[in-house]
Each structure stands twice: as structure tokens, then as C-alpha cells.
Design goal:
Length: about 100
């Protein structure tokens, strides 16, 4: 089942964040991931969530996504992202709430 990393971020240090932006795609691809949405400003429709920029990355499975997140080679890049943004990250598996009520 496909899985998605959803990143809500506010960039606080563009120069350092660009290092992350340039280097992370190769790591995403190595874990069979691909960008679905890449740093887009969302149009808020309802609720009090106010993300500045959204990234959605699709993986073939949650295992691939977790392997990406746990990869020791990527940790320095995550550190750069943490220091150059305020961010929130979710892992969501594909599926439907309807499956749960059947």
C-alpha cells in the first residue's frame, strides 16, 4: 500500500535550506519515492491550519518511507532542514476510512 510523507514547513534560513533542497531528491529516489507536491503554498479552505509551504512525497509502502526517514546517510540533511525551517511531518498510508467501517 502506498504511503505519503506530508511536510508542512516555514523556511527561516533560505541559504541553508537550499542545500537540503538540492541534495534530498537523490535520497528520495534511492528509497523509491517521488515528489507529488514540491514546496507549494496551499490555499486554505477551512480550519485553523495555516501551512506556508507543503511537500508531499509518495513511496511504494510505509516501509520505504520509514527506511528513508531512518537512513543514516540522510540524517545530516534532516538536521539542515530542522535548523533552517519550522516543520511538521506526517506519514500517511494510502487507504480509506470506509475500509475501517466495513
Amino acid at each position: 500500500m502506498k504511503a505519503y510523507l506530508i511536510l508542512d514547513l516555514t523556511i527561516t534560513d533560505l541559504k541553508n535550506f537550499m542545500v537540503y533542497v538540492q541534495e534530498i531528491p537523490a535520497h528520495i529516489e534511492r528509497h523509491n519515492g517521488k515528489y507529488i507536491v514540491e514546496g507549494v503554498k496551499p490555499d486554505k479552505i477551512e480550519g485553523d491550519w495555516q501551512p506556508e509551504s507543503i511537500v508531499i512525497i509518495e513511496f511504494p509502502s510505509a516501509e520505504n518511507a520509514r527506511s528513508f526517514l531512518d537512513d543514516p546517510e540522510i540524517q545530516p540533511l534532516f538536521e539542515i532542514r530542522h535548523k533552517s525551517t519550522y516543520s511538521k511531518l506526517l506519514l500517511v498510508e494510502g487507504g480509506s476510512w470506509r475500509d475501517a467501517i466495513r
